[in-house]
């Protein structure tokens, strides 16, 4: 299949038709950031106007200097004052432009910071469903380009569009008052043609730019996904396969990028032709006026200087329009993230959860990720305050979904979940999750120190509390044996630690949080038998006095539960104490017998290996 793609060439696969959006509507989202610094914006605009007035004044002064020095006018006195004024205006043009940028830079950076923070917070507020479906590399690239686009947009709209309009107005006034109708006529027609051509071609180029952005994000997503799964790539010796898939995405991006640059060449050539024709015509008119003695040599220089000062920023204006449109396209992808609806939201008037005690009840709960596939059906049980309830069953029975629903990563499809007789949908999410601690089956750590990862359970905890939590999780001695101790870094997703070590860090983190409700989701699944027995007693101690939900595969780890729920295909098929379930001889009894047999076979195999080694 991959070879077939390569054989097809470098033409990107046809993308589904994109919905046309008015990216300009995103500009209004930036107004609050400008209003916050309205004083700075006003000062910056003042500097801008001053710089442009000085810029237009330069050719006017230069005309006076040349006319004073022209031998035909018989004025031989050196116009020192005019020359000094000329130099001062030249300096002012640059000086006030730089002062404008210095004053405005905080406005731009604050806007970038605020918007990036808003997007970041919004992403964390979205449901687990969004994050399971998202492509991390593409999202990060969208945010990066979008925040960069904000700075570009603010700077160009205020300091490029407004100055060009102002400068064009000043030049138009001078041409209308000092020269005949041909000069302003040619200038206005050229400017109109230039702007019209630029807008038309740039709109065409934006479709190419959007396609390039999509392909760039796709290539970046492929690269990050491959690197995050480095070990899996190595396990299957698929380095070259991954490189080919990445190169396939890069090839498509290369094609779009080349097309983008070619279209830029068309735009630049067209703009230059319009400017060259207009300048040539105006210089011919000016030269004819000098020959006819209706204009002075200074007037010729004035026309040339005005046109240069007008067309240079106008040429820049073409680039500005392109950059603004590209920035709007980049920002649009980022702002679309803000439009992602929160699947789980706090209701108006939501309550804070009282953490003095926690009585949890599932009442006829139904749930499905997809309407075609039910995960939970009519699940009802309760965990009294301070009690421990265990849920067992085969993989895919829906055990871990109970924890996700209790955390309110999703809302139930039917029924309800209550804590202290209050529906959790009526609780503030932060207070709900603040009262729950979890040791997940698959522990993923931050690429930081062990100390940071344990302290993440309660960021305000002291070092002594962190170390006490590590001791409770039986990992303190291991940490102290490392050269860097608690400052040892765990690597990307904690890959420098073994599965058991990561699990113990997760246990320490949950202990440090000190929640009223504790969830153990296969908490000892990554531990060897000896370590499992040692930590199991600690988990029992940690669970005392807390409302505890234990999701387990190994039945031996939940023998102390007040009640055990047996799940199959999203339903509770049995419930009771371990003794009651064994005496019943049902599903639990079968699972117990099967695990006992597996343990016996494992122990027998280990004994055989020892005997062989001894002989």
Structural write-up:
The protein is α/β, with parallel strands linked by helices and 615 residues long. The protein folds into three domains: 25-338, ABC transporter type 1, transmembrane domain (ABC transporter transmembrane region fold, Up-down Bundle); 350-435 and 516-615, 3-Layer(aba) Sandwich (Rossmann fold), CATH 3.40.50.300; 440-514, Rossmann fold (3-Layer(aba) Sandwich). It is built from 19 helices and ten strands. The chain has helices at 2-7, 31-36, 38-69, 80-125, 128-133, 136-178, 182-228, 230-235, 239-291, 297-338, 399-406, 429-434, 450-455, 463-472, 476-481, 499-513, 529-543, 578-584, 587-614, and strands at 360-367, 376-383, 388-393, 414-419, 422-423, 436-439, 517-521, 547-552, 563-568, 571-576. The strands form two sheets. It has a six-stranded mixed β-sheet, with helices on both faces. The chain has a four-stranded antiparallel β-sheet with strand order 2-1-4-5, covered by helices on one side. β7 (517-521), α17 (529-543) and β8 (547-552) form a beta-alpha-beta unit. α3 (38-69) runs antiparallel to α10 (297-338) and α18 (578-584) crosses α19 (587-614). The longest helix is centred in the middle third of the chain and has 53 residues, at 239-291. The radius of gyration is 36 Å and the shape is elongated. The model is unreliable at 1-20 (pLDDT under 50).
């Amino acid at each position: 299949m991959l070879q077939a793609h390569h054989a097809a060439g470098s033409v990107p696969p046809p993308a589904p038709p994109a919905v046309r959006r008015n990216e300009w509507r995103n500009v209004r989202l930036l107004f609050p950031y400008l209003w916050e610094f309205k004083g700075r914006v006003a000062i910056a605009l003042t500097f801008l106007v001053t710089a442009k007035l000085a810029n237009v004044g330069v050719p006017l002064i230069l005309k006076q200097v040349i006319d004073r020095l022209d031998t035909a006018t018989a004025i031989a006195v050196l116009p020192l004052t005019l020359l000094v004024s000329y130099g001062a205006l030249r300096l002012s043009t640059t000086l006030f432009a730089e002062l404008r940028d210095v004053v405005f830079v905080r406005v731009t950076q604050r806007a970038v910071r605020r918007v990036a923070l808003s997007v970041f917070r919004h992403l964390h507020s979205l449901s687990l469903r969004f994050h399971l479906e998202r492509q991390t590399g593409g999202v990060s690239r969208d945010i990066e380009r979008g925040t960069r686009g904000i700075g570009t947009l603010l700077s160009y709209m205020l300091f490029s569009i407004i100055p060009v309009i102002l400068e064009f107005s000043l030049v138009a006034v001078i041409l209308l008052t000092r020269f005949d109708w041909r000069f302003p006529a040619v200038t206005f027609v050229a400017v109109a043609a230039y702007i019209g051509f630029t807008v038309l071609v740039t709109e065409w180029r934006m479709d190419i730019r959007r396609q390039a952005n999509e392909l760039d994000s796709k290539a970046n997503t492929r690269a990050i996904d491959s690197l995050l799964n480095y070990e899996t790539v190595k396990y299957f010796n698929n380095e070259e396969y991954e490189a080919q898939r990445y190169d396939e995405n890069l090839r498509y991006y290369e094609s779009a990028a080349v097309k983008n640059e070619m279209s830029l060449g068309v735009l630049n050539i067209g703009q230059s032709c319009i400017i060259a024709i207009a300048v040539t015509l105006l210089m011919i008119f000016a030269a004819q006026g000098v020959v006819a003695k209706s204009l002075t040599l200074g007037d010729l220089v004035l026309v040339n200087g005005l046109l240069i000062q007008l067309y240079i920023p106008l040429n820049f204006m073409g680039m500005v329009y392109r950059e603004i449109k590209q920035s709007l396209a980049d920002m649009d992808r980022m702002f679309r993230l803000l439009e992602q609806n929160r699947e789980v939201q706090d209701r108006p008037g939501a309550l804070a959860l009282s953490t003095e005690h926690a009585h949890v009840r599932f009442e006829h709960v139904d749930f499905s990720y997809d309407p075609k596939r039910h995960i939970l059906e009519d699940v009802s049980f309760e965990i009294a305050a301070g009690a421990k309830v265990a849920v067992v069953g085969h993989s895919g029975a829906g055990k871990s979904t109970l924890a996700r629903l209790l955390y309110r990563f999703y809302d139930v499809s039917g029924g309800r979940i209550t804590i202290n007789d209050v529906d959790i949908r009526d609780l503030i999410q932060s207070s709900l999750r603040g009262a729950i601690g979890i040791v997940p089956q698959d522990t993923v750590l931050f690429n930081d120190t062990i100390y940071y990862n344990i302290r993440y359970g309660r960021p305000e905890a002291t070092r002594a509390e962190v170390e006490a939590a590590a001791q409770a999780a039986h990992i303190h001695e291991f940490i102290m044996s490392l050269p860097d101790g608690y400052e040892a870094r765990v690597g990307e997703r904690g890959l420098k630690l073994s599965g058991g070590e990561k699990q113990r860090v997760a246990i320490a983190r949950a202990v440090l949080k000190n929640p009223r409700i504790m969830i153990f989701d296969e908490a000892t699944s990554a531990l060897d038998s000896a370590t499992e027995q040692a930590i199991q007693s600690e988990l029992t101690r940690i669970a005392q006095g807390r409302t505890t939900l234990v999701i387990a595969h190994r039945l031996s780890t939940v023998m102390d539960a007040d009640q055990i729920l047996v799940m199959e295909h999203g339903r509770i098929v049995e419930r009771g104490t371990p003794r009651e379930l064994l005496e019943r001889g049902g599903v639990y009894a079968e699972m117990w017998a099967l695990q006992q047999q597996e343990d016996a076979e494992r122990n027998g195999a280990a004994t055989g290996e020892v005997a062989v080694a001894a002989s």
